[in-house]
Specification:
By secondary structure, this protein is of the alpha/beta class. Helix content is 45%, strand content 15%. It has ten helices and eight strands.
């Protein structure tokens, strides 16, 4: 099968004891690519190392919004240069964006925005897709992406309302649908609303498992496919083929 997981975090401690087995299960399940997203300087370096070890792991390097707040301006600039230096080794810039869930202070939100803008500009400069996080900040994320003329945008686990979903769809952004679509009414509604040609699949491993009380992993991506096929009233094979073509289109056959 031609399955893809465009958003996972394989460098996290939840996979430290059995990643070889996780990768084998993914390959057996027909996964052709897992995009592992870096979150901070240490995570970015671990992610690059994993991509050297495992053929199916494609690295995306970024600065998660909460992690960016912990860095000085000098450290942020250093990491941006590191990402640019490794442009030929990565498939995307990610995970980046805004997160206001625990960030209520305007000053901190403003810093997140400034870092996000720099990462958008970097993604354009190095001509890589950008994988975007937007928890409790969906309107600001869409506004910044639009105002920055961002290209090849993947909205990861987008939780905005359907009006914002339509705005993003009209801007030709892609939506990566997580495995918890198995029980999430929101992601079922989003999938119903969005054109199949703008849908991708993700796990957000080790989070958002389709199975209660189980760690998520890339081999579970088939659960997203099954639900998309059901909602779109197409066969599982058709859903797989369409989404793999979307993956190739967005990530330029990397």
């Amino acid at each position: 099968m031609l399955l893809v997981d465009v958003h996972a975090h394989l460098d996290l401690k939840e996979f430290s004891s059995d990643l070889d087995e996780v990768i084998k299960r993914a390959e057996t399940a027909g996964i052709k690519a897992v995009i592992s997203n870096g979150l901070n300087p240490e995570s970015n370096r671990r992610t690059l190392e994993l991509s050297k070890k495992y053929k199916i792991v494609k690295p995306a390097l970024g600065l998660y919004p909460d992690d960016a707040l912990k860095l000085t301006e000098k450290e942020i600039e250093k990491e941006l240069k590191f990402i640019e230096k490794n442009r030929d080794k990565i498939i995307a810039v990610g995970e980046v964006g805004l997160d206001y869930k625990f960030c209520k202070k305007k000053q901190e939100q403003e810093k997140q925005k400034q870092v996000f803008i720099k990462l958008i500009e970097l993604s354009k400069k190095i001509k890589k897709p950008i994988i975007v996080h937007s928890r409790k900040a969906e309107q600001d994320v869409i506004d910044l992406l639009r105002n920055s003329n961002a290209e090849n945008v993947i909205l990861h686990c987008f939780s905005g309302n359907l009006k914002l979903v339509k705005t993003a769809e009209d801007l030709s952004y892609s939506f990566s649908i997580p495995t918890n679509i198995a029980y999430s009414q929101h992601f079922q509604s989003l999938t119903k609303a969005v054109d199949i040609n703008q849908i991708l699949t993700e796990t957000d491993s080790p989070y958002l498992s389709p199975y209660k009380n189980r760690r998520n992993e890339p081999s579970f991506i088939i659960e997203t496919i099954k639900k998309i096929a059901e909602i779109k009233n197409i066969s599982i094979t058709e859903a797989i083929n369409n989404i793999f073509m979307n993956y190739q289109k967005v990530f330029w056959l990397n």
